[in-house]
Amino acid sequence: MRNHSLGLKTTCNPLIVVVYALQTEDYSYFNIFYPSRRLAEVAKNRSIALRFLFPKDVPTFIQDISKKRTTRDTIFFLRGTVPVETIIFIERSGFRCVNSSSAVKIANDKIETANFLKSNGYPTPCIFEHAKKNNQIIFPAIVKPRFGSRGVGVFLVDCLDEIPEEKCIVQEYIADSHGRDFRVFFAGGSILAGVERRSGNAATAGDRGVEKSSVCSNINTGGKMYPSPFTPSVPKNIEAMVLEIAEKTGLWYGAVDFLFCTDTPDPLHLTICEINAFPGFTALEQERGFDIAGALVENLYELFLSE
């Protein structure tokens, strides 16, 4: 496995600052929000200092800790879709971010992601910009926001007239992967999990009608996680590809989502749908039993903060 250490070593009391972009700015929510509770639990059990912060409070926090701590004993761990401007501010203040602004720009912008994948020779569906005026689109096709996550705003269209006027992109539709995908979660140069995701009403293999309501497999839109269809759970060729993508993009942690190009899953016939810089891990833990929070905190501590 590649070691993605950023070279941050310290003998002082290390601090992990988790910057969370949520729909609320109520700090008491961190006490009931599953991911934050798990991160706090793991950090406490391992005697690692950790605190939570909302993006809007980052400037004041940095101004305060700059008088008390050095940039070498504090690291900012980003969760949720933290604005790139906030990440850049943290970096310009001399602190390390996981993930970096340059990596996030590639992963969060679906056009940038597609360009990165194509320029590096990775398999990926065709992406069409200026979709309302593009006569090269083969229908049905997938519409999704250029910037977005958790499956919001993703749906199937059958013609140009069904493409909304607002800014969006159109992605080639992969029929064999209708309502399902294969997610690989990684951190610190290691693969943490590989699972199949299916939409809430996805049909079984061999009987998938083109239902617009079932095209998206994200957990946020009602999808479920299932064991990997492969043995081992992440085949060697996929593992190598994911870790290479992590290295080339600069993502210390994240997820790569693959689409199936055959009715029966074949690790040699997958195509990359998206790269995620802030993947959730609740379902991975609650539905599949992975200890993602533990792996994240331990890797952060060992790779960035310990001697």
Question: Can you offer a commentary on this structure?
Answer:
Helix 1 packs across helix 8. This protein is of the alpha+beta class and about 300 residues long. It is built from eight helices and 13 strands. Helices cover about 25% and strands about 20% of the residues. The chain has helices spanning about 35-45, 60-65, 85-90, 100-110, 110-120, 235-250, 280-285, 290-305; strands at about 15-20, 50-55, 75-80, 95-100, 125-130, 140-145, 155, 170, 180-185, 190-200, 225, 255-260, 270-275. Mean pLDDT is about 90; it is low at about 1-10 and about 205-215. The radius of gyration is 20 Å and the shape is globular. Strand 1, helix 1 and strand 2 (about 50-55) form a beta-alpha-beta unit. The protein has a five-stranded antiparallel β-sheet. Strands 2-1-3-4 form a four-stranded parallel β-sheet, with helices on both faces. A four-stranded antiparallel β-sheet has the order 5-8-6-7, covered by helices on one side. It has two domains: about 15-100 and about 295-305, 3-Layer(aba) Sandwich (Rossmann fold), CATH 3.40.50; about 105-275, ATP-grasp fold, B domain (D-amino Acid Aminotransferase, Chain A, domain 1, 2-Layer Sandwich), CATH 3.30.470.20. The longest helix is centred in the C-terminal third of the chain and has 14 residues, at about 235-250.
List keywords for this structure.
26% helix; globular; Rossmann fold; 307 residues; D-amino Acid Aminotransferase, Chain A, domain 1; four-stranded parallel sheet; 2 domains; five-stranded antiparallel sheet
